[in-house]
């Protein structure tokens, strides 16, 4: 009788112990699944951030290459942007007659292309030409727009004048302007200072509500 009672008692203890271990295992697996899902989401976001920043930097580098080409050739060289409907491309041209780049002379073939048409998709496609019109404008000085100043209520991503030409001369100086780029979650701006030819890549930091250099 005592042996049977001990056996029964041990049997209940073993069963109870196994039940507790199974619940612990299920809980642990669920916790691991949640942590893994969060980790995957963060990894995907980090990869997207790297791709967006990389594409924006590649575009800014392309503009620097055009400036260097103007200095190398001792001639006016620039990019003409065409954003109409689904077409969003840019192309490098050189001055063909010594009077600078002009839209009508590009159309007439006087100012010849020196590279094939390009798109932002060539730089991984992680960004596009675009601007959130509610964001503050990039200023001419420090890159940060005045408090409360929006981008003139406009979503036009090209601030280059009516010709949409960005030109550099033989000394590296050129036209001023800002080109806005958007990713799925981030807003960039490539700012060109005509007098010095300086090219800055800026990103809008939503936490501080200011443009910061990248």
The count of strands amounts to 9
CATH structural architecture: 3-Layer(bab) Sandwich
Strand residues, percent = 15-25%
- Range of helix content: 25-40%
Separate helix tally:
2
CATH domain class: Alpha Beta
Structural class, by secondary structure, is: alpha+beta
Radius of gyration, whole Å:
29 Å
Terminal residue distance: 82 Å
Pattern of helices and strands: HEEHEEEEEEE
Mean pLDDT: 81
Could you give a quick summary of the protein structure above?
About 35% of the residues lie in helices and about 25% in strands. The chain has about 210 residues and is α+β, with helices and mostly antiparallel strands.
If you had to describe this structure to a student in words, what would you say it looks like?
The chain has 214 residues and is of the alpha+beta class. The chain has one domain (2-213): minor pseudopilin epsh fold (3-Layer(bab) Sandwich). It contains two helices and nine strands, in the order H-E-E-H-E-E-E-E-E-E-E. It has helices at 2-73, 103-108, and strands spanning 77-84, 87-94, 128-129, 158-159, 165-168, 177-182, 187-193, 198-205, 210-213. The N and C termini lie far apart (82 Å).
């Amino acid at each position: 009788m005592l042996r049977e009672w001990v056996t029964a008692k041990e049997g209940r203890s073993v069963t109870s112990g196994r039940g507790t271990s199974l619940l612990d295992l299920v809980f642990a697996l669920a916790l691991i699944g949640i942590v893994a899902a969060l980790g995957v989401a963060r990894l995907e976001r980090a990869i997207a951030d790297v791709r967006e920043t990389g594409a924006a930097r590649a575009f800014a580098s392309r503009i620097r290459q055009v400036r260097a080409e103007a200095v190398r050739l001792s001639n006016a060289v620039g990019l003409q942007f065409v954003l109409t409907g689904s077409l969003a491309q840019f192309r490098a041209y050189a001055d063909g007659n010594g009077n600078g780049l002009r839209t009508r002379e590009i159309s007439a073939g006087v100012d010849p292309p020196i590279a094939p048409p390009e798109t932002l998709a060539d730089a991984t496609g992680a960004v596009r030409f675009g601007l959130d019109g509610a964001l503050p404008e990039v200023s001419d000085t420090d890159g940060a727009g005045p408090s409360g100043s929006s981008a003139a209520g406009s979503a036009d991503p090209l601030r280059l004048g009516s010709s949409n030409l960005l030109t550099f001369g033989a000394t590296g100086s050129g036209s001023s302007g800002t080109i806005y780029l958007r990713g799925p979650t981030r807003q960039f701006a490539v700012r060109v200072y005509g007098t010095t030819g300086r090219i800055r890549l800026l990103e809008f930091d939503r936490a501080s509500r200011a443009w910061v250099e990248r």
